[in-house]
Amino acid sequence: MASGPDTTSASAPDGSRERKTAPAARRSAPGESPHVSSNVSADAGQPASQEAGRPGRTRRLAALARREARSTALAALSGVALAFAFPPYGIWPLSFVAVAALSLLTRERTGRQGAWLGLAFGWPFFVVLLKWLHVVGWDATIGLAFLQGLFVLGLGAGLAVTSRLPLWPLWGACLWLTEEFLRDRLPFGGFSWGRLAFANTDSPYTPLAALGGAPLVSFAVALTGTLLAAVALTGGRLRSAPARTTRAYATGAGALALAGAVTAAGFAVPVPTKAADTVRIAVVQGNVQQPGMHFLGRPMQILNNHVEATLDLADRIKKGKEPRPDLVIWPENSSDLDPYKYPEARNRIDKAVKAVGVPVLVGALVDHPTKSGYVENQGIVWDPEKGPGASYTKQHPVPFGEYVPFRDQLSKVITRLQQVPRDFYPGDHTGVLQTGPARLGDVICFEVAYDEIPRDTVKDGARALVVQTNNATYGRTGQPEQQLAMSKLRAVEHGRAVVTAATSGISAIVSPDGTVQQRTDEFTQDVLNGKLPLRDEITLADRVGAAPEWVIAIVGVLACAGAVLLGRRSRGARTQPGAPDAAGHGDGNDEHDRQAQAEGQHQ
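Given the sequence above, the corresponding C-alpha cells read:
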C-alpha cells in the first residue's frame, strides 16, 4: 500500500501521491530571491509545471516503480504459479492459491494500482500457459498473452475497488467469472484458454460441472481462493493483541469453514454414468512426419498414414486379432486433400472404408461449394457402400489461424499472416451425425473450449461427443494435454463419453465421469479399440445453459458499480472538515481514508 504524509489525498495517474492543496509559496533555496513565484519560471515566464513536468513525472514513475517493485514481483510470481495449475503440470491447488494471492495484493489498493497488479499477474500467467504458441513465434506468444492479460488488468482493478465492501470475497469470486465471461467472447469470438475450470478437471471441484458447467467450477475455485485470502487477512490481524476479539476469530473460522465446504461440495454431486446403450469404436491416429508449422509434408502423406493404419486394422480384424468396430473415427485434417476435388484422395479413403467395412468419420478441408476462395473444416461420414454423406462444418474458426480479420490491412503489416492463404468459412449448425448405429456429436479442435458448442450439440441429440483435432503444430509443447483436460471436463458437464481423435496425439476415450479409459502417446501411429457408452439423459448444466454464468458475471459488474458509487458518496460526506464518511471514518487523515479518497478519484 502506498504511503505518504497526511497532506495527500489522491494518487496521481502513475500511482504516486499529489498534494491536497498547493502552498502559496515555497521556501527559498539559499541564494535564491524570495520574490520568484513557485508557479512561474523566472526566465521563461511559463508555468513551472510545464517546464519541469517531464522530470517530475519521471521522478514519480521511478518512485512508483521502487514502491511497487515487491508487490509487482509477487503478482508476477502468483501468475506463474497459476499457470502451473494447468496441464501439463496439473498442480490444481495452485489455482485457488493464486486467486488468494491476487486478492491480498489488491486489497484496499486504488483502482489504478489494482489494474497494474492485475496486468503484472495476468501477463506472465498467459506467457507460461500459452508457451506452446512459440512454434509460431515468441512474439505471437507474448503478444497474445498481453492481450489476454488486459482482461486480468480489469479484474485487478475490480478486486481493488470491491475489497472494501462487506462480503468482499463473494464479489471477488464473481469478478473472476466476469473476466472469464468477457474473455470467452471478446474479441472475434473470444479465447477460452486459461479458465480456472480447465485447471480443475481432476479435482474435488470437477463434479460441479454437471450442475453449472465450466462457469460454476471456475466460480467455486475463485470463491475458495478469496475466502482463503480472508482467512489469511484475519490471521495477520490476530497477531495484534487488540484485534483478538470473538468477532475476529468467528470471522476467520467462518471463512475457513466456508472454503472447506465449497471445496467438498463436489463430492455431494452425483455424476451420472449409466449407459443406455454401447457401441464399439476404433480411433485411428495416423501420425505426421514432423511436428511444427510444416507438419503436412508432401500432399497425400497424412491421408496415406491414416489409410494404412485403417487397412492394418482391417487385416487384424480379418485374422481375428481385433474385434470389429461398429464405426471408425479419423481426426481433423486426416485427409490433407479435398476428397470431393481430388479423385486420388477419394479413392484412397474409399479403399480404407470398404476394407474395414463400417462407416468412418473423416476429417478434411474442402472447398466452399458457392464462395470462391473459402474452405470448410469438415467432419464427413463416409459409408462403405454409399461413400461420403452427412457432414459437419466447424462453426468457430480460429482468428489469425484459420481466418484473418481485416486481411487486406493487417497482412500488409504482419506478413506472417500470408501463411493463412484462405479463410475458413464457419458452419451454421451443430455436429450431430448418425455414424453407423451411433448418433455422435462432432466438435472440431478448439471448439471444445467454448461452452455453447458442445452444449448445443448435446441438446440437439448427441449421445456421445467426438473431438476431431489436429495438434501436430503444437506437439510436445503441453497444448495437447491442455485440450485433453477440456474434453474431460466436457464429459462430466454433459454426462457424455468424449472421444478425442488426433492426427499426432493425444487421442483418447473418456468416460462420462471424466476418466480417461484409453489414450495414445504423441507422434506414434496407433489405433484405440473400445466400447463407447451412449447416453440420452441431460444434465442440469445443459438444462440451465448459460444462465448461471450471466447472473454471476453481472453480479460482479454490479459490485464494482456499487463500490464506485459508495466511494463517491463517501467523498461527498467528507467535504466538510471532520465529517465522518459513510463507513463512520473521520476526515480522511488516516491511511484508510486516504486510500478511499484516492480510489474514488481514480474511478
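The chain has a mean pLDDT of 87. Try to locate this feature in the C-alpha cell string yourself.
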